[in-house]
Write a structure and sequence with these properties.
Layout: H1 2-15, H2 17-21, E1 27-28, H3 31-42, H4 44-57, E2 65-66
Parallel strand pairs: 1-2
Length: 114
Amino acid sequence: MVRRAAHWAIRAYQLTLSGLIGRQCRHWPSCSAYTDQAIAQHGLWPGGWMGFARICRCGPFGTHGIDLVPDRLPADAAWYRPWAYARWRGVEAPPSPFECEAVRSEDAGPGRSA
């Protein structure tokens, strides 16, 4: 019930104020979508803290880029230590599909240099 109320409050923000202010989030997904997904996935208390930390990181001197909601809560997180739910620095980016492995010289074959 509370999760649904939080979802509809976030959705109302996305449809009204977000359009008036302009889409200025430096992350993907946006901070409101991240918070909505975190609350749906982990509950109002941990998800709300995750969203709060994400909004704090989203600024001119904060992080940017792809930042996904973690699949699992941190091991040291507890309800009485809500700051432990959130990531206050960095982003949860998936591995880049464009990373190349180094080629060793013995793998290059005869007549080829690495």
